[in-house]
Amino acid sequence: MLVLILGLALFFGLHLLRELGLRQRLITRIGLQPYKGVVALGILLSLGLIVAGKASAPFVQVWVPPYSLRPVTHMLMISSCILLVAGALPYSHTRALIIHPMLAGVIVWGSSHLLSNGDLASVLLFGSFSLWALGKIITLELHHVSQRPPSRPALIWDAAAIVAGMIVYTVLLVFHGPLFGFALLT
To answer: In the chain, fewer beta carbons within 10 Å around the N or the C end?
Structure first.
């Protein structure tokens, strides 16, 4: 469990550098490109720790999720994948309507997984990501860091987000077992 917690702490710490007032200081000290490289490597390391920590964590039941919620999890995951992709694409109506769609996708991802996973490691993993994304949206809005597109949205970007989001969802569905140790298709 310690490896999971260390990975989460590193991931969130790196993503909170701006809010902690450290981002600009580090960029000034080492330069923008080295800063991006160090942060990217740190995030990759944190994700590795999170995956390894979750895989090796002891199973401690916190609650028993009803099996009937699994289809709800899948439906929410489709919307999560679409939101995650929409946040990376320019000028979609989704970006114009939803504040920080990528972070909203993380909230939906984490919350949907809590519907189907009741063990302590899952609660830590998915609950902390959902809370972090919610907190990040709040702090970005307090600092007026808007993600809204600067020009008129176009439906083609929404269609691209839906198609790409469905592809991402399908890949995750098919390869969930090899990637995360729990097969969704049997």
So the answer is: C
- 4 close to 46: Cβ distance less than 8 angstroms: no
Cβ-contact 44, 68 below 8 angstroms: no
Asked if residues 158 and 94 have their Cβ atoms less than 8 Å apart, the reply is yes
User: Among 51, 36, 28, 29, which residue's Cα sits nearest to residue 125?
Assistant: 51
pLDDT in tens, 100-159: 999 999 999 999 999 999 999 999 999 999 999 999 999 888 877 665 656 688 899 999
- Rounded to 10 degrees, the C-alpha dihedral 159/88/127/122 comes to 80
CA 76 to CA 69: how far, in whole Å? 11
Domain range annotation of the chain: 1-57, 59-186
- Residue 121 near residue 1, CB atoms below 8 Å: yes
Query: Which residues, at least 6 apart from 92, have a Cβ–Cβ distance to it below 8 Å?
Result: 86, 149, 153, 154, 157, 158, 160, 161
Radius of gyration of the chain (CA): 18
User: Residue 151 CB: number of other CB atoms within 10 A?
Assistant: 8
What DSSP state is assigned to residue 28? H
